[in-house]
C-alpha cells in the first residue's frame, strides 16, 4: 500500500468548513484573494507537507485562484475533508516494433508536425504515398535504427 511522503501530490476533497473558510477569506474587506467559487466536495490537488505517525498528513491545497488552503492532520478517504491518491492514466500503447512501416510513418508525421509540413529546403512535404519506395525505405531504416538504439542505450 502506498504511503504518503513529503512532496507527493494527492487530491483533497473540500469539507463544508473548508469551503466556508475559503469564502470568508476571499470576502474579507481589503483582502486581495480571488478565485473561482468553491463548494463542499470539490476536489483540488494538494501537496503533502508533513506526515504524522497516525497516518494523517498536513496538506497545502492548491485552489483555483491566487490562494491556497492549509489542511492539517487529514486522513485518506473519499468523504469531504479527506485526501486520496490520484488515479493513474495508462500510457498510450507503444507502436509495434515489428511494424517498421508504421514506425516510419509515425516518424515522418512527427517530422512534418515539427517543421510545419516543410522539407529541409522549405518545400511542402509530400504525402507518404507520394514519397516513393526508396525514401519510404530510408524512413523505415531510420525508425528501426532509433528503436534499436533506444533498447540498447537504456530506454
Poorly predicted regions are none
- Indicate the percent of residues in helices: 25-40%
CA-to-CA gap between the ends? 28 Å
In terms of DSSP E residues, the strand content is 15-25%
User: Biggest sheet, in brief?
Assistant: 5 strands, antiparallel
Number of DSSP E strands = 5
**Which class best fits the helix and strand makeup?**
alpha+beta
The overall pLDDT, averaged over residues, is: 88
Shape: elongated
User: What is the string of SSEs from the N terminus onward?
Assistant: EHEEEEHH
What radius of gyration results from the CA coordinates? 26 Å
Number of helices: 3
**Biggest sheet, strands in spatial order?**
4-3-2-1-5
What does this structure look like?
There is one protein chain. The chain is α+β, with helices and mostly antiparallel strands and 155 residues long. It has 3 helices and 5 strands, in the order E-H-E-E-E-E-H-H. It has helices at 16-27, 100-115, 133-153, and strands spanning 9-13, 43-51, 57-62, 68-74, 83-84. Strands 4-3-2-1-5 form a 5-stranded antiparallel β-sheet, with no helix packed on it. Helix 2 crosses helix 3 (133-153). The chain is elongated. The two termini are 28 Å apart. The model has no long low-confidence stretch (mean pLDDT 88).
